[in-house]
Amino acid sequence: MGGGHDDPNPGQRIKLMGHGMSSPLEPELVREVEQYRLEIVGLASTHSLGSGTQLLERGWTLFFSGVPHGERHRAGLGLLIAPQLRRHVLEFSPVNKRVVSLRLRPGDRCLTVVSAYGPNGSVEYPTFLETLRGVLEGAPTGDSIVLLGDFKTHVGNNSDTWRGVIGRNGPPDLKSSGVLLLDFCASHSLSIINNMFKHKGAHQYTWYQDTLGQRSMIDLLVVSSDLWPHVLNTQVKRGAERSTNHHLVVSWIGLRRSMPDRLGRPKRIVRVCWEHLADPSVRGVLQGTRGG
């Protein structure tokens, strides 16, 4: 896909940001998100205890979920909502320290927005995705879906194999947990929109480690198939790192009255596993079928 648009008409868009932060309650947070004119902000690694809501300065509201009281302050995440959207919030679901969801109705469309904080290890990844699956399957029929957060994995850029799930404009790195995430997205008709738009590398990589010379794209924005045609742009905004080694990831989504309703559950995207043709037994079955 081509390069994105500039910030569209504020009355016709919602501006999202997925970003890993170590301390969401720093005084600079609200000033920073207002500087970038953000409206829904995903926060990860908040190290918060328990779950609930907190009113911040200038009318912003933090919906957070962390570890139970008495446990070590690890993980934790939240969603920060702009004052103009607060009255449109319908439901808040603090699932656990890695998944939190919020349902809201900005205009004529209901959104289920999920903030996620993936595990580092591949062993825990299936459990993490099962939690996400439960949240999505519990969302009311017809809701548009937005996932955002630090997924701790690489999804590559093989847009031929994963057509409709990812784009070709991104780093090629792919991990086993990334394949699990791609298959999860395909099964729920979701698109990872970070690499759908063509940008310079500086506006694609979301995490960096200067001392080791490393960088990667692990903070992802994911939308349901009905929203993807209305994504105007998605890119990294450098210069707002604060106390983290993650860059801002900002996306503009146009919410117009002309958008079609998302009726029923999404159909599964079928992926053709061409790599299985390397197995002689699979080739033999296919050749026998064709010969019959």
From TrEMBL:
SUPFAM superfamilies (alphabetical): DNase I-like
Pfam families cross-referenced by the UniProt entry: Exo_endo_phos_2
Molecular function via GO: catalytic activity
CDD domains reported for this sequence: L1-EN
Annotated region (Disordered), positions in chain: 1-21
InterPro entries hit by this protein: Endo/exonu/phosph_ase_sf, Endo/exonuclease/phosphatase, Swc5/CFDP1/2
Domain (Endonuclease/exonuclease/phosphatase): residue spans on this chain: 112-235
Protein name stated in the entry: Endonuclease/exonuclease/phosphatase domain-containing protein
Organism (species): Hemibagrus guttatus
